[in-house]
Specification:
Elements: H1 11-20, H2 22-48, H3 51-62, H4 80-87, H5 91-103, E1 107-109, E2 113-115, H6 118-124
Antiparallel strand pairs: 1-2
Helix pairs in contact: 1-2, 3-4, 3-6, 4-5
Length: about 130
Protein backbone atom coordinates (compact mmCIF):
# COMPACT_ATOMS: atom_id res chain seq x y z
CA UNK A 1 0.00 0.00 0.00
CA UNK A 2 1.20 3.47 -0.78
CA UNK A 3 0.04 7.05 -0.97
CA UNK A 4 -2.24 7.59 -3.96
CA UNK A 5 -4.00 10.36 -5.77
CA UNK A 6 -7.48 9.67 -7.08
CA UNK A 7 -8.79 11.68 -9.98
CA UNK A 8 -12.09 11.54 -11.81
CA UNK A 9 -11.91 11.65 -15.59
CA UNK A 10 -14.75 12.18 -18.01
CA UNK A 11 -15.49 9.18 -20.20
CA UNK A 12 -15.40 11.29 -23.37
CA UNK A 13 -11.86 12.50 -22.55
CA UNK A 14 -10.58 8.95 -22.01
CA UNK A 15 -12.24 7.72 -25.23
CA UNK A 16 -10.63 10.60 -27.16
CA UNK A 17 -7.18 9.91 -25.69
CA UNK A 18 -7.51 6.17 -26.42
CA UNK A 19 -8.23 7.00 -30.07
CA UNK A 20 -5.52 9.65 -30.40
CA UNK A 21 -2.66 8.19 -28.34
CA UNK A 22 -1.75 4.59 -29.27
CA UNK A 23 0.90 4.25 -26.54
CA UNK A 24 -1.58 5.34 -23.86
CA UNK A 25 -4.21 3.09 -25.41
CA UNK A 26 -1.92 0.05 -25.17
CA UNK A 27 -1.01 0.80 -21.55
CA UNK A 28 -4.62 1.47 -20.55
CA UNK A 29 -5.99 -1.68 -22.17
CA UNK A 30 -3.15 -3.78 -20.72
CA UNK A 31 -3.98 -2.37 -17.27
CA UNK A 32 -7.70 -3.13 -17.68
CA UNK A 33 -6.99 -6.67 -18.86
CA UNK A 34 -4.59 -7.27 -15.97
CA UNK A 35 -7.14 -5.95 -13.51
CA UNK A 36 -9.91 -8.11 -15.02
CA UNK A 37 -7.71 -11.21 -14.78
CA UNK A 38 -6.92 -10.37 -11.13
CA UNK A 39 -10.63 -9.91 -10.27
CA UNK A 40 -11.49 -13.23 -11.93
CA UNK A 41 -8.65 -14.96 -10.07
CA UNK A 42 -9.85 -13.47 -6.78
CA UNK A 43 -13.38 -14.73 -7.43
CA UNK A 44 -12.20 -18.25 -8.29
CA UNK A 45 -9.92 -18.15 -5.24
CA UNK A 46 -12.81 -17.17 -2.95
CA UNK A 47 -15.15 -19.80 -4.36
CA UNK A 48 -12.87 -22.81 -4.60
CA UNK A 49 -9.87 -22.43 -2.28
CA UNK A 50 -9.54 -22.88 1.46
CA UNK A 51 -8.83 -19.84 3.64
CA UNK A 52 -5.34 -21.28 4.19
CA UNK A 53 -4.60 -21.25 0.47
CA UNK A 54 -6.21 -17.81 0.06
CA UNK A 55 -3.90 -16.42 2.76
CA UNK A 56 -0.85 -17.96 1.07
CA UNK A 57 -1.90 -16.42 -2.25
CA UNK A 58 -2.54 -13.01 -0.68
CA UNK A 59 0.87 -12.99 1.02
CA UNK A 60 2.52 -13.82 -2.32
CA UNK A 61 0.60 -11.02 -4.05
CA UNK A 62 1.55 -8.53 -1.35
CA UNK A 63 5.22 -9.53 -1.71
CA UNK A 64 5.09 -9.04 -5.51
CA UNK A 65 5.71 -12.70 -6.39
CA UNK A 66 5.07 -13.20 -10.09
CA UNK A 67 5.97 -9.60 -10.95
CA UNK A 68 8.98 -8.53 -12.98
CA UNK A 69 10.67 -7.07 -9.92
CA UNK A 70 12.25 -9.21 -7.20
CA UNK A 71 9.88 -10.35 -4.43
CA UNK A 72 10.23 -8.19 -1.34
CA UNK A 73 9.37 -8.54 2.33
CA UNK A 74 6.02 -7.01 3.13
CA UNK A 75 7.15 -3.83 4.85
CA UNK A 76 3.76 -2.24 5.48
CA UNK A 77 2.26 -2.88 8.87
CA UNK A 78 -0.64 -5.08 7.91
CA UNK A 79 -2.71 -6.47 10.72
CA UNK A 80 -4.15 -9.94 10.92
CA UNK A 81 -7.59 -8.33 10.96
CA UNK A 82 -6.86 -6.66 7.62
CA UNK A 83 -5.55 -9.92 6.14
CA UNK A 84 -8.68 -11.68 7.42
CA UNK A 85 -10.92 -9.12 5.70
CA UNK A 86 -8.92 -9.42 2.49
CA UNK A 87 -9.36 -13.20 2.30
CA UNK A 88 -12.78 -13.54 3.89
CA UNK A 89 -12.00 -15.33 7.15
CA UNK A 90 -11.46 -14.56 10.84
CA UNK A 91 -8.40 -13.06 12.52
CA UNK A 92 -7.95 -16.21 14.60
CA UNK A 93 -7.74 -18.35 11.44
CA UNK A 94 -5.16 -15.95 9.96
CA UNK A 95 -3.14 -16.15 13.19
CA UNK A 96 -3.31 -19.95 13.15
CA UNK A 97 -2.16 -20.15 9.52
CA UNK A 98 0.57 -17.51 9.94
CA UNK A 99 2.02 -19.51 12.85
CA UNK A 100 1.74 -22.69 10.81
CA UNK A 101 3.47 -21.06 7.81
CA UNK A 102 6.25 -19.82 10.10
CA UNK A 103 6.76 -23.26 11.71
CA UNK A 104 6.97 -24.81 8.23
CA UNK A 105 9.61 -22.25 7.20
CA UNK A 106 7.37 -20.69 4.55
CA UNK A 107 7.49 -17.20 6.09
CA UNK A 108 9.35 -15.23 8.74
CA UNK A 109 7.92 -12.27 10.52
CA UNK A 110 9.27 -9.89 13.11
CA UNK A 111 8.04 -6.39 12.36
CA UNK A 112 7.74 -7.21 8.66
CA UNK A 113 6.68 -10.37 6.89
CA UNK A 114 9.30 -12.13 4.77
CA UNK A 115 7.84 -14.53 2.25
CA UNK A 116 9.95 -17.50 1.13
CA UNK A 117 9.57 -18.85 -2.39
CA UNK A 118 8.53 -22.20 -0.90
CA UNK A 119 5.13 -20.61 -0.09
CA UNK A 120 4.55 -20.46 -3.84
CA UNK A 121 4.46 -24.27 -3.92
CA UNK A 122 1.50 -24.18 -1.53
CA UNK A 123 -0.52 -22.09 -3.96
CA UNK A 124 0.55 -23.99 -7.07
CA UNK A 125 -0.21 -27.45 -5.68
CA UNK A 126 -3.76 -28.64 -6.05
CA UNK A 127 -4.01 -29.69 -2.40
CA UNK A 128 -6.80 -28.32 -0.23
CA UNK A 129 -4.71 -28.24 2.97
CA UNK A 130 -1.07 -27.62 3.80
CA UNK A 131 0.29 -30.61 5.67
CA UNK A 132 2.88 -30.17 8.39
Amino acid sequence: MMDSVIMRLEKSVIVRVIHEEPIFSEMFIAHLLGRTIRVESDLVDQLFNSSEKRLARMLLLLANFGKESKPEPIIAKISQETLAEMIGTTRSRVSFFMNKFRKLGLIDYNGSIEIHSSLLNVVLRDQPQIRS
